[in-house]
Specification:
By secondary structure, this protein is α/β, with parallel strands linked by helices. It is built from four helices and twelve strands; from the N terminus they run H-H-E-H-E-E-E-E-E-E-E-H-E-E-E-E.
């Protein structure tokens, strides 16, 4: 039986964002702290480098504590910014002190466009599957960006277990992530197993 992938993704995206927004605050904080711990296991052994993450949107995990800690250890931290539809994202240097302005979709971005090139990108997940394919918000910016970067940065998806699907029905343009981190652990690309 064939399905309308575009319609399925639209409906799945809406359903999972709604479910994420309904996570009770205590459960959200507990899961977020577990995710921060697993992310520390991945990043703490690495020498300081340039990392892009994101500001929380629609119930996503807030990684600002992680970014603060990494900055103190000498890392350069950045946020993605949309340039124009169909173009790769730019990555703009960011700290808590950075003056912000409203970007595309109402998401804050640094007012000063100090472009950096991350060696690691942390991406928020609307959904993911056992092959580490990511369902995002639908515009394809991260896939366009990853396809354009050489060398390709390490990619880490962050989300909740409730976002886990059997498949996202990947398209040829979808790029699997290196790691997925949820409150249950770390999933390596393609193995579908969590390391807890």
């Amino acid at each position: 039986m064939s399905i309308d992938i575009v319609a399925w993704r639209r409906e799945t995206r809406a359903r999972l964002i709604d479910a994420r927004l309904r996570i009770p605050p205590d459960d959200h904080e507990r899961a977020s702290l577990a995710i921060e711990g697993f992310l520390a296991e991945v990043l703490d052994p690495l020498p300081p480098q340039t990392l892009s993450a994101y500001l929380p949107y629609k119930g996503e995990v807030d990684l600002r504590r992680v970014l603060d800690r990494l900055k103190e250890k000498g890392w350069i931290t950045a946020l993605p910014a949309v340039v124009r539809r169909g173009l790769p994202l730019e990555f703009l240097r960011w700290t808590r002190e950075t003056e912000m302005e409203t970007g595309v979709f109402g998401i804050p971005i640094p007012r000063v466009h100090d472009i950096v090139f991350p060696s690691c990108i942390i991406l928020p997940l609307v959904a993911f599957d056992a092959q580490n394919f990511r369902l995002g918000y639908g515009a394809g910016y991260f896939d366009i960006t990853l396809a354009s970067l050489e060398p390709r940065p390490r990619t880490i998806g962050i989300g909740f277990e409730l976002c886990r699907l059997d498949t996202i029905h990947p398209l040829p343009t979808d790029i699997p992530l290196d790691l997925i981190i949820t409150e249950n652990g770390i999933q390596k690309s393609g193995d579908g197993h969590r390391i807890v």
